[in-house]
Amino acid sequence: MLEETKIKTVPRVVDNQIFLLNGHVYNTVINDHNNNNGATNYAYENGTEKVQSGNIKMKKIQNSKLNNGNLSNSSSDDDDDENVYEIKPSNDETEILLSGNSTEIDPHIPDHETWYAVALQVFIPFMIAGFGTVGAGLVLDYVQKWRVFKEIPEIYILVPALLGLKGNLEMTLASRLSTQANIGNMDKRKELISMVTGNLVLTQLQAIVVGFLAALVALVMGWIPDGNFSIRHALILCSSSVSTASLASLALGIIMIFVIVSSHYCKINPDNVATPIAASLGDLTTLTILANVCAILLKTMEKHYWLPIIITCLFLIVIPVWIVISYRNNYVRDVLYYGWSPVIAGMLISSAGGLILDFAVVQFRGLAVFQPVINGVGGNLVAVQASRLSTALHRQTKPGIMPAGVKSACPNPLSVYFSSKWDSVTTRVLLIMAIPGHLVFIYFISRMEAGYNFVTVTFTILYLIAALIQVAILLYLAQWFVTFVWKHKRDPDNVCIPYLTAIGDLLGTGLLACAFIILSVFDKNV
């Protein structure tokens, strides 16, 4: 039995033309059959037309009423008298009847953001994030001389995996909450509290599990080359990894929530701000915690051998508690079921980058300081693009239904980088932004006289080439991967960023090592 209810607050308005709710678009039965620009694939439900794909035309509706399950319109002489009604079917799914002026709408454009608006919103958080990665690089360059890093070289394998948790957890959290903010689900305090609580608990659960698995992977990868295994090293790695992952995730999660909610109320697009801010403190915080926890445990184990065991067991014991709380929260229940493969796969990919780092830091004394920078910048930029693409899809339809003109096949590289569409414009902005960003970061590192004490023109050129190749590949992959995941009825907010940032870690570390190998031909002091 259908009910008819006047809508008091419309969740999302585009150009005063379309009302969107929960990613669904509903309108009267208007079909432009002469439109050859896109498919016209519609599903009719209770006298309304659910737009699945194709360009659509809207016309004004006055005093729409529902009679025996059929939509009827009573005319009015007042063209400004527009009524919008909410129809709730028996399955409690919400549908919308639209009112608006006669026009043709391009469903691809999520916002009318110009390239300079995107650049202005992204650049400041991007630079802040970049200096955060520079700080992480300086920390890594400093702590690599510590006793614990020399005695337990497996920590180098652990570093990219734990730093990658920023992409696997915090950036994914930022993307999820940014999407919720942009589709209007943060406007009610009760929903906001439930959303925040569920996401914090879920990230704690994932951080502990992935941190423990990352330690095991680091041990295996460290054991394979020479066959040596130390139970002492294993205990330090496991306890350090889970405690670092949990503490860093909690701190960064709270900061992310504050940034996204503040951005939402300040009318700033959280997609442009949240993920770079997550990265600005992520690498520095995680690496600082990891280095100090490892050093403390190595020292205390000489008298208190049981301490790492207690720490690891305490974190593992709370896992069932976090599972129950996450399961009872509607906002993260699906992620609890389906959000594991991306974060675990991302951790494994990042660990492969850790193997390269473990080899490269021994061969090239100046590489360590640049590794977090090149990986962090690439991850920041691709996370912004993936978050924006995901939000655009959420605003138009639901997972599994492709908007008109959006293809899930591998896109033409020329269309990705050089077309006039909003996503191509954003791609160019982000790619170009990498150049001045890296130049500033290289200059800052050289002034700090860290690692490679003199930055030459040859080094700068090789480094920029490596960085641009990394970012270009990542932005292309984001364009394809987000739509591919959407077509297969998965939420890109939960899937894409972990894979993309992990691939960025692997590409960045590998390309940076290649740059240093080539540089060593010209400079024997590298």
Automatic annotation (TrEMBL):
Write down a Pfam family by its short name. Answer: MgtE
By its UniProt entry, which SUPFAM superfamilies does this protein fall under? MgtE membrane domain-like (SSF161093)
Q: Which InterPro entries match?
A: SLC41_membr_dom, SLC41_membr_dom_sf, SLC41A1-3
**Annotated localization:** Membrane
Its lineage reads: Eukaryota, Metazoa, Spiralia, Gnathifera, Rotifera
Location of the SLC41A/MgtE integral membrane domain: 159-291, 371-513
GO cellular component terms listed in the entry, alphabetical order: plasma membrane
Q: What does the UniProt keyword field contain? A: Ion transport, Magnesium, Membrane, Transmembrane, Transmembrane helix, Transport
Q: Where are the transmembrane segments?
A: 115-140, 152-169, 205-224, 236-261, 273-298, 305-325, 337-357, 429-446, 452-478, 499-522
GO MF annotation, one? monoatomic cation transmembrane transporter activity
What membrane topology was assigned to this protein in its record? Multi-pass membrane protein
Q: Does the keyword Transmembrane helix apply?
A: yes
Q: What is the protein name stated in its UniProt record?
A: SLC41A/MgtE integral membrane domain-containing protein
Look up the domain of life of the source.
Answer: Eukaryota
Family label: Belongs to the SLC41A transporter family.
Q: Is Transcription regulation one of the keywords?
A: no
